[in-house]
User: Which sequence fits this backbone?
């Protein structure tokens, strides 16, 4: 199996390390599931059936070794790599007795060695657990075509199809919705100061929080730092304001990268269909211009199209 077709369960109790390793590996895997405790990892393992497990050894509560014991009692075949900041003989022997597939020393700051180990591991994975390899391959390709590789949210192709679907009957149809054009405020400054790895982590953290806060609504990344959200059957301004204020609050506090706090904020432009714009191209353009007005007003705010 190729790494790009594989799913990974990453288990790490340190949130900063978890996000860092995820950001390093996300572009190379089909999907990464995150767990910060062994109990959570065991639940995800049973629900998601990942292809590979990469787990820290030392965690509060159930250790990584105990997690491996539990998984090995259910599945002797799934590849498991262990992460540890230690290199003591006793730990290595315990891990070897559990028939793990690899042992990686932290901190994981360079991705090449880890990727080499993961690729070797993925090549040994066979898709026997799938009842229909052909169907899964089609589903995988379709999912990749409609998902942004970095953040996992819908991509611009998916957004265009959604917009076309909602406006297919024209402005006289029964569909009404609002379009939020969302731009991350400080991605360039983060890239310039901390590097693109930090910028990728910022994008992932931002997308995850906005997706969670607006989980009922369609959300997509359509460019480098540009996102959109569609609020179906929501055109009343006070209702839209309440949602947007929830979105802005959800990203307060920033995210941590190598001990530094990366600030997160965004500027949002709003345009309603068909009240403000009866044409989808005009709708997107007016929402975009409203977003730039929000930036000129000081960022971390929102404006309706005029």
Assistant:
């Amino acid at each position: 199996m190729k790494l790009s077709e594989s799913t990974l369960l990453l288990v790490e109790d340190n949130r900063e390390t978890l996000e860092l390793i995820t950001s390093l590996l996300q572009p190379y895997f089909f999907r990464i599931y995150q767990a910060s405790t062994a109990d959570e990892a065991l639940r995800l393992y049973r629900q998601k059936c990942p292809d590979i497990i990469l787990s820290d050894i030392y965690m509060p509560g159930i250790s990584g070794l105990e997690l491996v014991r539990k998984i090995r009692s259910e599945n002797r075949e799934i590849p498991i790599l262990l992460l540890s900041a230690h290199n003591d003989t006793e730990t290595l022997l315990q891990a070897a007795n559990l028939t793990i597939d690899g042992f990686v020393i932290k901190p994981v700051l360079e991705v090449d060695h880890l990727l080499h180990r993961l690729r070797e591991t993925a090549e040994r994975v066979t898709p026997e657990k799938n009842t229909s390899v052909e169907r899964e391959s089609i589903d995988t390709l379709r999912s990749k075509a409609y998902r942004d590789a970095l953040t996992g949210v819908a991509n611009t192709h998916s957004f265009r199809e959604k917009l076309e679907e909602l406006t297919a009957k024209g402005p006289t149809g029964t569909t009404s919705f609002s379009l939020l054009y969302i731009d991350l405020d400080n991605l360039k400054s983060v890239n310039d100061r901390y590097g693109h790895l930090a910028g990728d982590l910022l994008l992932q953290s931002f997308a995850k929080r906005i997706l969670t806060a607006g989980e009922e609504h369609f959300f997509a990344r359509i460019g480098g730092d540009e996102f959109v959200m569609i609020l179906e059957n929501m055109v009343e301004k006070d209702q839209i304001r309440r949602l947007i204020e929830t979105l802005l609050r959800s990203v307060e506090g920033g995210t941590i990268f190598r001990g530094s706090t990366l600030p997160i904020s965004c500027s949002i432009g709003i345009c309603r269909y068909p009240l403000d714009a009866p044409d989808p191209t005009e709708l997107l353009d007016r929402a975009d211009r409203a977003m730039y007005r929000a930036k000129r007003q000081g960022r971390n705010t929102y404006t309706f199209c005029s």
Notes: The chain has a mean pLDDT of 84.
